[in-house]
Amino acid sequence: MGASARRAARRLTRRQRLRIPAQNSPAAEVEIDDTLVRALLRDQFPDLADLDIVEVASGWDNVIYRLGDAFTARLPRRTVAAVLVEHEQRWLPTFADRLPLPIPVPLRAGQPALGYPWRWSVCAWLPGETALRAPVDDAEAATALGLFVEALAAPAPPDAPPNPLRGIPLAGRTERLEVNLHALGDAVDESAVRSLWSELVATPVWDGPPLWIHGDLHPGNVLVRDGRLSAVIDFGDVTGGDPAMDLSAAWMFFPSAVRPIFRAAAGGCDDATWARARGWAVAFGIACLASSADNEEFTALGRHTLEQALRGA
Questions:
Q1: Do both 47 and 20 map to the same domain?
Q2: Which of 24, 47, 243, 309 could form a disulfide with 281 if both were Cys (CB 3.0 to 4.6 A apart)?
Q3: Cβ neighbour number for residue 24 with a 10 Å cutoff
């Protein structure tokens, strides 16, 4: 990035940072509570129905309940998320064994019932806090996450889940980026973002085979325990495509001095792939800011990611 873009990045003033006219997170389309979860368990997995049930997370797409000490229930809260659970049920068991960190492989596949319209999953409980709440940005974490990205990024089969928004050429995100910039107004430096985006979107596209990517590898989907990465969760966006998508995590997790360690651990990608990864970080940061008005953690993550991407590779 040139000197003008760096100066523009520094002009994200406190006034601008606080004036973010973003939308709230998507609303749930069905009401999910512990009564429904217990009823579904009694109907389909009665051996689990008497376990303690505690809601532990509710994201854009799913609600997660802890079941006793060993299990979780993962239930879609929107129609668009229902097929994503099916993708997890189909594909996570096929590559979990070759990954260096645990992932939430579905142990049981729940079916629509009792007025609940979609498939759902029971998975093993993976202990830890998200990296949003327990940040790690040191060399050890960079190595661990990089090795995970490298291990996942094997060639994806032709019938891997399609995803029109992840792992695609950067140019395919330009329209959505512009919509989000319009919504944000002067909350971000549009000139700096557009200048950098124009530079990065001109990078040569990925010309290799589609590789497996997580598709949403941000700190809210990585668990930390005792100061170390302990698991990667939420594979609803898993797909085959450009590995730059997952490499964008570099700007979400790590400062500039540590990013080369992540890059090397992830396989030492070429400069074009690294540039596209930075572009994905820009798109992610803008999307977070534009869509998380009611979620302070994701607003802060979006702001941090955008600022890091604007400052440099």
A1: no
A2: 309
A3: 10
CB 95: neighbour CB atoms within 10 A? 17
150: nearest Cα among 90, 191, 76, 98: 98
Spatial distance between the Cα atoms of 289 and 301, rounded to a whole number of angstroms? 8
- Is residue 308 within 8 Å of residue 262, measured between CB atoms? no
Between CA 243 and CA 162 the distance in angstroms is 15
In a domain, 29, yes or no: no
In tens digits, the chain (313 residues) has pLDDT values of 444 344 434 434 333 433 444 456 678 899 999 999 999 999 999 999 999 999 998 877 899 999 999 999 999 999 989 999 999 999 999 999 999 999 999 999 999 999 999 999 999 999 999 999 999 999 999 999 999 999 999 999 999 999 999 999 999 999 999 999 999 999 999 999 999 999 999 999 999 999 999 999 999 999 999 999 999 999 999 999 999 999 999 999 999 999 999 999 999 999 999 999 999 999 999 999 998 888 899 999 999 999 999 999 9
Give the angle subtended at the CA of 169 by the CAs of 165 and 171, to the nearest 5°: 90
Q: Is 261 found in the same domain as 168?
A: yes
> Are 43 and 138 in a shared domain?
no
**58: burial class by Cβ within 10 Å (0-12, 13-18, 19+)?**
middle
> Do 16 and 52 have their domain in common?
no
- Domain co-membership, 64 together with 158: no
